[in-house]
Specification:
The chain is mainly beta and 117 residues long. It is built from no helices and 11 strands. β9 and β10 form a beta hairpin.
């Protein structure tokens, strides 16, 4: 079975940092497009960062320059380094899998809460 388990969320002060991790199993991430998507209550989900199978990253404008996505295909792990956090970054952060850029998300994790206050 495919599983994605996020960790690393928590409470942090504005300006602080957190590193989210996504542990995957049941498939090899090396061929997939991996994303971090956040959900703020009352708002639509936002893809904040993604990384393609070649390691090329992309970011939402709201986090560009502050967040960094990476992947370790040997460990089937995906990471999101979040620096200079803002109150508006408070959200539930999900790890997500797509077949390719622009395709729909096929697997989701359960999410990890990030609260900046």
């Amino acid at each position: 079975d495919v599983q994605l388990v996020e960790s690393g969320g928590g409470l942090v002060q504005p300006g602080g940092s957190l590193r989210l991790s996504c542990a995957t199993s049941g498939f090899a991430i090396s061929s997939y497009y991996m994303s971090w998507v956040r959900q703020i209550p009352g708002k639509e989900r936002e893809r904040v960062a993604a990384i393609d199978s070649d390691g090329g990253p992309s970011y939402a404008n709201s986090v560009k320059g502050r967040f960094s996505i990476s992947r370790d295909n040997t460990k089937n792990m995906v990471y999101l380094q979040m620096n200079r956090l803002k109150v508006e970054d408070t959200a539930l952060y999900y790890c997500a899998v797509s077949d390719s850029v622009g395709s729909e998300i096929i697997y989701w994790g359960q999410g990890t809460q990030v609260t900046v206050s």
